[in-house]
Amino acid sequence: MAVLLHRLGHSAYRHRKLVLGIWLFVLAALITCVGVFGGKLDDRFSVPGTESQRALDSLSETLPEAAGASAQIVFTAPEGHRITESPYTAVIARTVAETERAPQVSAVVDPSASGAVSADRTTAIVQVQYRVQTAEVTTSSVDAIKSAAHAAERDGLRTSVGGSVFNSKGVHIGPSEIIGVAVALLVLVVTFGSLLAAGMALLPALIGVAAGLSGLLALAPAVSISSTAVTLALMLGLAVGIDYVLFILSRHRQQLARGTDPKESVALAVGTAGSAVVFAGATVIIALAALSVIGIPFLTTMGLGAAGAVLVAVLAAITLVPAVAGFAGTRLAPKPGSRAARRAAEAEGAADAEETTGRATLGTRWTKWVIAKPLLTVLAVTGILVTLMLPAADLRLALPDNGSAPHASTQRTAYDTISAKFGPGFNGPLLVLAETNDRTTATSSQVGAQVAAKLRTLKNVKAVLPPEVTSDPAQSVVTVLPDSGPDSVRTDRLVRDIRSAASDLRATSGASIAVTGTTAVNIDVSNRLSDSLLPFVAIVVGLSLLLLMMVFRSLVIPVKAAVGFLLSVGASLGLVVAVFQWGWLADVLGVPHSGPVVSFLPIILIGVLFGLAMDYEVFLVSGMREEWAHTGRARQSVVDGARHSVRVVTAAALIMFTVFAGFFPLDDSLIKPIAFALAVGVAIDAFAVRMTLVPAVLALAGRGAWWLPAWLDRLLPDLDVEGSSLQKVVPADSAEPEPVGAGGVRGNSGE
């Protein structure tokens, strides 16, 4: 692989105008496709084959308004008045008439007909039903309802609008994301000591992100793509794109500082650091693509979309970087006497130079401190991470609703008012579809009444509405209002109780029942994701053991990396539970609601953090392995190997953290916790695990850290991530005397 990438770097450098032109042409073509053919994003969460989804699909044919999107207009009378007073009932009737004229609305139910008036007669709800799904509801339709509700406020009523039409808005580029990119640019400037180099690093990353995102959006007319999938692809593409370019470009500049010809330097950088980039990117792609085996369409799209963004980032790093570097030539070389030039000289001089000058890099000082008492370090770091993991034992999963929306939003006001005046279950009704073999309306109504009577006897049921017959005479629908909210454990238990009562109902009424509705579908999605969590972890951990065993020819390193990965994931989930579920520091961090964690967050976190953990593991440990192969001194190789890679990995982790953290301020109940989890996950894995725990464990293991049984060594393929095979292709007159490892260190063939 290293030789192939070395040749690719040479070719991209020579044909830099063509390479850049191809990228810009592809980007322009994709943007044009999005503008001409771009379809709507689909934010439906469904699990094909589940009871709730089958019933919902049936209702979409026989009772579309029950399966379609819904909205609620909540009216509250002024203090000291009742909503049933004649002036206010007239205002509500006028609002109902205006709402009926809104686009896409199929039915509007007046509270006088539905009985949706609070017990204290101060609040009433107008129910609005659509024949289309939430993703198909236009902004103009929602605005028309808001306008009708707002008009009622002129007559003294307080109004708010909620319902399923208010869903995750997904992609939103605002000041916080721009600040994140600006901070990333600042980190690049500090790392490179050059504004030109920082800009050259950011340009290929941004082109890659734009191409990846445009490609994903261009598929929207043909594939169901959620706004969350697009935002996740944007976050990951931006974070790994900048990181991968950083790894290659920093290696290139280090070689330029030592006098290497620019063309040969960029080829060597692509062949060495680029090999590690390809490996790290491949692990992220595999982990994200593995989300498709869970069998949930929206999660499959999310994983494949993010994997595609990472793939484009890798391609941009190994093709655009050498092309752009070709335009800069020797101008990317650090100026003589600059900090960057001194760092390159120190890296070239290695330990001898350190002893002569008396200066030690930050990476060297940190690693020496960590391994001074390695057992104490291991126990301290492990103890801290295990402590952070403890809240994860209380992890509850659910999909967010309007109760997670910002406090100032109209949907949150409507949700809180309904919960206070009607009970939390009114925000998450359950639909029970009853079907018989007798296709007469009278029989369906009778069966529906029997089902409703049985449902009233179950625990946690606040009310059961009269059955409604669909266009299919064999069907009736019973609406159940739980006594608990849609994300409550009690509501989940009620769904299970209703399904457990199905056999009794079939015996007494001859009807088969199915629980459905938005709340039931969300519960089924969360349960499927929860059941898939442990198998997915097993797949990811097994994959990490195999890949790292092939890369480092060791047993200790893969096991250590897998355990460290689990500690990082556990600690990140623990912090997510503490903040988003328990509400710790919620006000300080601007978290609007404490409750269950987004159901697909753990799997997304595991998939993404796995790839990033392997990324940092390769860049850090490859340098240590090369020093071990060169000197045979186990403990010193940990120090010398870290000297060259800690700075770059630190910069990479800071960039990832700021990019992910830039999405945290978004008022989106799906994106906010994911951004938080990824940001803290990267920080924990990079600084606590890779830079602290890893050196301490390797120092403890000594020579045993690099041992692999001979028979296993022969069986495993050699991925040559470190690029040692390049010594056979580097020209003899090159200024680079030795092959160079992915971590930016001197090395040899590994004898």
From TrEMBL:
Any single Pfam family the record assigns to this protein: MMPL
Residue ranges, compositional bias (Gly residues): 741-751
Keyword line: Cell membrane, Membrane, Transmembrane, Transmembrane helix
Transmembrane annotation, as ranges: 20-38, 178-198, 205-223, 229-249, 270-298, 304-329, 375-393, 533-552, 564-585, 597-624, 645-664, 670-689
Location of region: Disordered: 731-751
UniProt domain SSD: residue ranges: 195-327
Membrane topology according to the record: Multi-pass membrane protein
Cellular compartments annotated: Cell membrane
Family per similarity comment: Belongs to the resistance-nodulation-cell division (RND) (TC 2.A.6) family. MmpL subfamily.
Annotated protein name in UniProt: MMPL family transporter
